[in-house]
Design a protein that fits this description.
Elements (H helix, E strand, L loop, with lengths): L1 H34 L2 H6 L18 H65 L1
Helix pairs in contact: 1-3
């Protein structure tokens, strides 16, 4: 009976639980990617910042045309700069989560050996 319980534990610890850990880790990575809206930021990379843009006047006045063009260009450049920082931040957080998830997964796999080693070390400390 006890050996059957041990086999169930080993099966759960090394087969079922890692599968669930990977699912949860994947959900966290997916959430982070969408939290920072990386796909949307890439699609709208050169869009004007906060949709601030100027319309071109009717007729042709070179001064008004250059002012409108430069204002729209500045708005697009500002939007690209802000989106670049958001994309970089999102990807940096994604890398940190990827690294921490790997450490957590590795910790989970060696946890039974660590518990056994700590138990044996505790017994040696008694004597």
């Amino acid at each position: 009976m006890q050996s059957l319980l041990l086999l169930h534990y080993v099966k759960w610890h090394y087969l079922n639980a890692p599968r669930e850990i990977m699912k949860g880790w994947g959900n966290i990575l997916w959430f982070n990617f969408n939290y920072f809206s990386v796909p949307l930021l890439l699609q709208t990379f050169f869009a004007p910042w906060r949709k601030i843009s100027w319309d071109y006047e009717k007729g042709f006045d070179i001064g008004v045309y250059l002012f409108t063009f430069s204002s729209n260009l500045i708005s697009r450049i500002l939007g690209a700069i802000v989106r670049s920082f958001l994309i970089a931040t999102g990807l940096a957080v994604q890398l940190v989560l990827l690294f921490l998830g790997g450490l957590l997964f590795l910790f989970w796999l060696v946890l039974p050996a660590m518990i056994a080693a700590a138990f044996i070390y505790g017994i040696f400390l008694l004597f």
